[in-house]
Amino acid sequence: DTVLTQSPALAVSPGERVSISCRASEGVNSYMHWYQQKPGQQPKLLIYKASNLASGVPARFSGSGSGTDFTLTIDPVEADDTATYFCQQSWNDPYTFGAGTKLELK
Amino acid sequence: EVQLQQSGAELVRPGTSVKLSCKVSGDTITAYYMHFVKQRPGQGLEWIGRIDPEDDSTKYAEKFKNKATLTADTSSNTAYLKLSSLTSEDTATYFCTWGFAYWGQGTLVTVSS
Fold it and tell me: I need a labelling partner for B18 at 20 to 30 A (CA). Which of A41, A49, A70, A82 fits?
């Protein structure tokens, strides 16, 4: 299975820029997607196919990368962005998710 | 507005089966694949599999091939996930997601005697 590796946690101040990384154990083309999940809620799609902003998602969120290395950037970070962020690949079977990066605000 | 409404929480006995539902409103279920995702308490997300409601074709992650069965009923715009031979390892919240763009609220399944 394709393993997606994310850093476990980040802490930033409101107004700053934060980049969350996701590294795949094998190439996934551009089929990397990003989700935000808050406690007790379902995941919410933020970015699809590496760099495409999902409908209704603020332009503060952006994605980049291809192959095995991908980044989700939030700029500027707002208090409401406190959440866990998951990457997911849909290029190789089975589809897999990263373990998540918990973003906390200082 | 598209919404996915999942069935309510289940408390089930080990060794039994449970069938969860996921109803799509606001569009026709055949427009996208329906996927199901497992999330154990405090853990990450696992893809179980997907069904194409157009032709009922399915694909499963290997580890769920003898555990999960996906079906769909286009007349009611509803997809189903059946979990069999339940153990404590199956205690989790199960999400349906339509094309990964739309997500249900999740169904908590607790396996306990």
Answer: A41
**Positive or negative: CA dihedral B73, B74, B78, B83:** positive
Contact A2, A67 (CB under 8 A): no
Across the interface, do A48 and B44 touch by the CB < 8 Å criterion? no
**pLDDT tens, position by position, A18-55:** 999 999 999 999 999 999 999 999 999 999 999 999 99
Partner residue opposite B47 with nearest CB, options A44, A48, A96: A96
Measured in residues, chain B has a length of 113
- C-alpha A27/C-alpha B25 separation (Å) is 36
